[in-house]
Amino acid sequence: MTATDVRGLSIATIADGVRSGKLRARDVTEGYLDRIARLDRALNCYVLTDAAGARRRADAVDAARAAGRDPGALAGVPIGIKDIFVTRGVETTCASKILRGFVPPFESTVTQRLADAGAVSLGKLNMDEFAMGSSNENSARGPVRNPWSLAHVPGGSSGGSAAAIAASLCAGATGTDTGGSIRQPASFCGVAGMKPTYGRVSRYGVIAFASSLDHPGPFGRSVEDVAALLEVMAGADPLDATSIPAPVGRYRDACRAGKDGLQGVRLGIPDEYFTAGMDPEVEAAVRAALDELARAGAKLVPVSLPHTKYAIATYYLICTAEASSNLARYDGVRFGHRTKDPRTLEELYARTRGEGFGLEPKRRIMLGTYVLRAGYYEAYYGKALRVRRKIADDFAAAFTQCDAIVTPTSPIPSFRFGERMGDPLQMYLADVLTVAPNLAGVPALAQSCGFTKSGLPIGLQVIGPPLGEEACFRIGGAYEARTEWHRRLPADSAMSGAEVAS
Amino acid sequence: MSADKYEVVIGLEVHAQLSTQSKIFSWSSAAFGADPNTHTDPVCLGLPGTLPVLNAAAVESAVRLGLAAGCKIRQRCRFSRKHYFYPDLPKGFQISQFDEPICDGGAITFRLHGERRSVRLVRIHLEEDAGKNLHAAAGVSFVDYNRAGVPLCEIVSEPDIRSAEEASEYVRAVRALVRYLGICDGNMEEGSLRCDANVSLRLRGETKYGTKTELKNMNSFKNVRDAIESEVKRQAALLDRGERVVQETRLWDAARGMSAAMRSKEQAHDYRYFPEPDLPPLVVSDSELAKARASLPELPEDRFARYTTSSGLSPQDAGVLIADKEVAGYFDATVAAGAPPKRAANWLINEVLARVDDPRKLGAADIAIAPVALAELIALIDSGKISGKLGKDIFARMWTERRRAGEIVAAEGLAQVSDTGAIEEACRKVVAANPDVVERYRAGNAKLIGFLVGAVMKETGGKANPKTVNEILQRLLAN
Fold this sequence. Notes:
The complex is a heterodimer of chains A (502) and B (479). Helix content of chain A is 39%, strand content 12%. Chain A has 17 helices and 11 strands. Chain A has helices spanning 11-20, 25-43, 51-66, 109-116, 159-166, 183-189, 223-233, 251-259, 280-295, 311-326, 345-356, 359-371, 378-398, 424-429, 435-440, 469-482, 492-495; strands spanning 46-49, 78-82, 120-125, 172-177, 192-195, 215-220, 266-270, 299-303, 404-408, 444-451, 457-463. Chain A starts with 10 loop residues before the first helix and ends in a 7-residue tail after the last helix. Chain B folds into 3 domains: 6-290, no CATH class; 298-411, no CATH class; 420-478, Orthogonal Bundle (Arc Repressor Mutant, subunit A), CATH 1.10.10. Chain B has helices at 56-68, 164-181, 221-240, 286-294, 300-308, 315-322, 325-336, 341-352, 371-382, 388-401, 405-411, 420-433, 435-442, 449-459, 466-478, and strands at residues 6-17, 72-73, 76-77, 80-83, 93-96, 103-104, 107-112, 115-128, 132-135, 141-144, 151-157, 193-203, 213-216, 248-253, 258-264, 274-275, 282-283. In chain B, the strands form 4 sheets. In chain B, strands 1, 2, 6, 7, 8, 11, 12, 13, 14 and 15 form a 10-stranded mixed β-sheet that branches. A 3-stranded antiparallel β-sheet of chain B has the order 5-4-16, with no helix packed on it. In chain B, α7 packs across α9. The longest helix of chain B has 20 residues, at 221-240. The chains are: A alpha/beta (502), B alpha+beta (479).
């Protein structure tokens, strides 16, 4: 058995190689398993590596091709699965102690579709517990480290997914984005990721944090890789009543179309997203990216999203309310952690939940429970829903003047471990540029657009109208065709075996 | 208790389990009675990552019930989450309807001691049932989730009910309605129809309501009546002593014949309702509404009106017939086969219903005496072919032997002899054989005609038409 050198390989290279017979799925898989074995001790991207299962799946792809069957659009593409996706027979914990030992009897729609397309799952990826966090410091399984600098956070909550892509520990990954949990870590780790339109990708089998805000989506090294994954992941699902029946777009074609330029494309630039607190290096990189898009033929138009300043407050009212409800099922009765020898039913609940949940889920359960108290609904949740409508209306109005909106993904590059943990509010503000698209349900693409002088990635965000994923991909594809940022890789030497300061 | 000092005010919440194939939000069977936890799936177990998908059949049932009860159907409504912790509630919340129920208003109509009563409804809403806790010995409990996710319609009445008996009749009327519609078994013992009662008293003439208590765990009509009667007495005694009724939930203990407090208002749950984000708004289209309306059968009250007017039945008989749609259906089929309505009703109520333990068995295809067969029997009697007395014997044989009346009569020569020649011959024979009786009859003892008729009947083996015998004898003896 030989292991392919997989560092920096694109999904198209792998899938085309396997489909044509130039590459063996098993060799590619061995290449990634080898890197995980060498590098993940320092990075902590995976909470579970399923090497035996991965080899079995890779062999099945090779066997299918050898037998003349179509091995699928993602034939032999090794992927990592955020541990929030339910996987049949494979422990699924949401990086929480309360789900330790939970081995689901069913498979999420997204991971089923990826497997059916020939993708090879390598294991489950680390994350902030129940997707609550922006730095991956809230994982019960320890923090993920940023491959560009081990002293820096990878972002969150899908920190494991973003870091694993950056470090070539998988070719593609799944993530979920409730307030920026795909885009912000993609930005911090210098990779691409998309939060599609709400309902575009099924949530069946995705463990709920905030149901009306949770968006499953893909991570890849490039926008084109993200497009290839989304084509497989997206589509209506009878098991998710909120999924959209519209046909899935041709996202890879949209990326390629971008290579021919952006003539006739109007890009909206909202003042509200270039805030006072923005890191100057981030602002400079994003402004340079806007210039590049203009050179590609796009017309830049100023747009206004006046309710942006309410987005964070609105978001935290809605997401905590829904989280307090969604997390009620972790009661120690049917699955996961159960406290030892409770004397009463009350004690079973209180101790199981007290022992099982980490600090951040507890904080949000308490906030959400407060928000939904009888008599307070209108003042908090009800009002938040009305502001949410206004934020969605802002986007609808802006999209009458432009085809997509371009902003920074995060106002800051990655920060050091511990830097913001003492101040939850400061941590919540890290989501300031990403939460509004979740509230409006519109698609948003994150991609790399530069680096700070100290070598930390900077991200660009392209927001489209509802079901406007193709517009995002065309713009992202155009930028990618004219720049080299997505080709930069962190050095393996910086990750392997290095002692990590915390 | 000071009998008429207080007015009793009762509002009922009836939960009807909808007899759909699958659960309200998932695919496992909604059927009752399987081994514990065999009718489950990841969704109804509330496993992480699962999502509810609304069962259209449950919506259709609720819409039909709403139309039958005269409710306004909300063509756009939504579901809400109702939160509380209990082991039988898998998700820690129940998906129910809160501020936007599928049906508003309406009324349930029935009769109490022959008087028409109409109890207004507040609403009817859809929700999912919880599982069932099973308490074993020594502090060990199990949970059966077969029932978790079975669709329920909750039917909430206004506080229009004024007695325990009326409450029980109201529940009967609800049961008849859901059974007519075929949307619920209506079996109180198995829990497919459950009822909670809000009970309060106030001084007669008072317009404000008194403090209410909520009664739970009444799983038969008798329980409903007994529990409410007991609660009325308890509250009256408190008020008579100048004490106050505490707002609380009370559990009825049928074995002990009393209720006990379960939780007070202070301990009441804050259910933290909010709109269910996993389900889009429920939309009932105009065409779905029209289809549901067209699917409604003739309802109990419409049948009652028809039976008491065009069929000419007494309100009592009509009331018995409409109580179960199978009985009413049997009656209609008997009449359709030619039986006069009153005759059909009498035979049905006195003979057929007396022979079944559950009136719904009259709807079975293999019922011992089909409506057509009953109509045939009635026709044989009414045409004079057999006597009414013989008819009852033949009915009994039809029931056990599963044979048609005409077949039994023909095979055994049981038809009444109406051939006057043969009867006259028998009469002459009897007159000749009993000269002393004839003598005394002619001397004025008219009652002796009965003896002679009896003798002729005996002579003819009971087959002679008694009326004809009587006429011939009178004629012969007059000479």
